[in-house]
Amino acid sequence: MAVFFRQIWVSTAVLLLLVGIGIREPAVAAVGALILLAGAVARMWSRLSLERVSYTRTLENRRAFVGEDLEVRFSIANRKMLPLPWIEVRESVPEALPARDAHTAPSGAPETAVIARGTSLAWYERVSWRHHFLCQRRGYFRFGPVRLRSGDIFGLFPDDREIETRDYVTVLPRVVDLPALGLPSERPFGDARSGSRIFEDPSRIAGVRDYRPGDPLKRIDWKATARRQQLQSRVFEPSSSLYLLVALNVDTFAFSWEGYDPVRLESAITVAGSVAAWGEQQRYSVGLIANSSYPGADRPISIAPGRDPEQLTRILESLAMVSPFTIAPLEGVIEETVRKLPAGATIVTVAAYLPDGLGARLERLARRGYPVTLLWVADDDVPALAGVHVHDLSTAMRALEHGWAAKGTPAVPPPTGAAPAARVTAEPVSPWARPPGV
């Protein structure tokens, strides 16, 4: 009926008005004039309905661990004199973060659902509500955009608008103690080497000296050589820190067209995050490399070893963003990174598939004096590498995964009780307050 009226209201009103005037029937003319006036008012109301309407979304936390609850606050405000008898909000939310206190509907976008809510807004009024989302799996997820729909009091001329406001949340991977993985609590990766002057830190330059036969070309300081007109070699300070490089192989099969095994990949990511957390507790300078990439980037994930207080957070965030698609062989990423590490740095590789090139690279690093460890998370035969410590963690990981599944949540104990129902609150809005957005 509303669609039919929208199509013919002008012609019908004009026709009744002209007929009433032509046959000198005031009632018919009045009906035509009334329809014309009501339609004009409804049309103007609809055009102004979404003007000076602001929408905000507030995330309690931008980071959460798998299994935790995430609270998000939504708010919509009408900052004008014209009231809104009805307004609909369709919020885009990640499918991987199901709402515990709201019904979600499928969306046309991949891996996205929609939460719909309807309300009314008086003049200068704000309505707020909250939803709780369960972080079921690790990843980098987006909230938004949102679509608003409103119109006149009769609902004859609805108007809608999409607001491109987006917020992102990072769900960090599982972190477990190394003994739970079957690794020894004392020196799980062999004896660490540090504090000796024979190991130099290439990131800390102490000065320059005259070139000596046998110095590698990467030691030569070309600027100092140009100034002194004689070859000069850099002198590095001795390494005073324990270095730990976690190398994650994202490949789970030999060929990309075979796809990937999500269970193996998540196991490898869990182990990599747990090793990084252990290294941070043991006061290592921890770094991470992976042959995957950040969303929208075209380079491998690489975090240089460091002791910054936020280092572990950066590593876990990077692991949360790991995708199953590789952009480079891990052996090449390791070789490029090892050049910047001091001798004696501990290298821990986590893999569910070991290509021949990666195995050969790890053996060469072991022969060069690096403590190298391979953590194997696949159910296949455990590879044997000369000089490399190999630990089979597949059995321990399967036991942990069964335990998490039995608890009903992938990582942490389930929240006690159900989340409270979404509570809607209304409050006045100052007409002089500056709106945060449209």
CATH class of the largest domain: Alpha Beta
User: Tally the helices: what do you get?
Assistant: 8
**Poorly predicted spans:** 194-198, 410-419
Taking the sheet with the most strands, its summary is:
6 strands, mixed
How far apart the termini lie comes to 31 Å
CATH architecture of the largest domain: 3-Layer(aba) Sandwich
**Total domain units:** 4
Helix and strand layout, with pairings?
Layout: H1 2-22, H2 26-49, E1 53-59, E2 63-65, E3 69-78, E4 84-94, E5 105-106, E6 112-121, E7 125-134, E8 139-143, E9 146-150, E10 159-163, E11 167-172, E12 200-210, H3 222-228, E13 232-238, E14 243-248, H4 262-281, E15 285-293, E16 300-306, H5 311-320, H6 330-338, E17 346-351, H7 356-367, E18 372-376, E19 389-392, H8 394-407, E20 425-428
Parallel strand pairs: 2-11, 14-15, 14-17, 17-18, 18-19
Antiparallel strand pairs: 1-3, 3-7, 4-6, 4-9, 5-6, 7-20, 8-11, 9-10, 12-13, 15-16
Helix pairs in contact: 1-2, 4-5, 6-7
Structural overview:
- With 438 residues, this protein is α/β, with parallel strands linked by helices.
- It has 4 domains: 2-49; 55-173 and 417-428, Immunoglobulin-like (Sandwich); 178-197 and 241-407, Rossmann fold (3-Layer(aba) Sandwich); 200-237, no CATH class.
- The chain is 27% helix and 30% strand.
- The chain is built from 8 helices and 20 strands.
- The protein has helices at residues 2-22, 26-49, 222-228, 262-281, 311-320, 330-338, 356-367, 394-407; strands spanning 53-59, 63-65, 69-78, 84-94, 105-106, 112-121, 125-134, 139-143, 146-150, 159-163, 167-172, 200-210, 232-238, 243-248, 285-293, 300-306, 346-351, 372-376, 389-392, 425-428.
- Strands 16-15-14-17-18-19 form a 6-stranded mixed β-sheet, with helices on both faces. It has a 5-stranded antiparallel β-sheet with strand order 5-6-4-9-10, covered by helices on one side. Strands 1-3-7-20 form a 4-stranded antiparallel β-sheet, with no helix packed on it.
- Helix 6 (330-338) runs parallel beside helix 7.
- The chain is elongated.
- The model is unreliable at 194-198 and 410-419 (pLDDT under 50).
